[in-house]
Amino acid sequence: MRRGMLLCMVLGAATIVLGIPGAALAGGGCHSGVTQNDATGEKDATVRMLDACFTATVTRVDAGTSVTFANTDQGVTHNVGGNQWGHFENMIEGDTFTVRFDDAGIYPFACNYHPGMTGAIVVGDGKGAGNAEVVSVQPFEPDTKPVTRVVATDAGLPVGLLTATGLLGIALGAGIAIGLVRSGRKSATA
User: Does this model's pTM top 0.70?
Assistant: First the structure.
């Protein structure tokens, strides 16, 4: 009887725990740690948005360098917000915008939609005010070519479904455990 109750509790807990990784992957941050790109000496640099991460997380450039932010994340909408600069509107896969940083300093940025999805542009030696007033943002022009979106069926179960399944498992396990306890009491009194 106790084994049955313990088994039901373990199965219910396992159902919930197995649903947690999907929820953890849902919101931003670089999942494999900070990435870096040293683009000093180059005319331009690119920061890609992929797997809810900015890649590279930290990009080092010379003053006057243009940095292009490109959403390469299939089916995921992002934006890029810095202190007094950025592109705060939705960026879907294939959308890009370019920024030129003229003054030395550190320019942090983040995606408003994905907590933890952050990064920084280090201009020059990184020492300086990082004056956003002199950051030049080219107007954003969404990609006008037609896009065919394919819905993948192998992406796994939605987090809500996994949570509901976990709760159902707990309820089922509790019901079975209660039934086992009651049948054990009836057997003991007979």
Answer: no
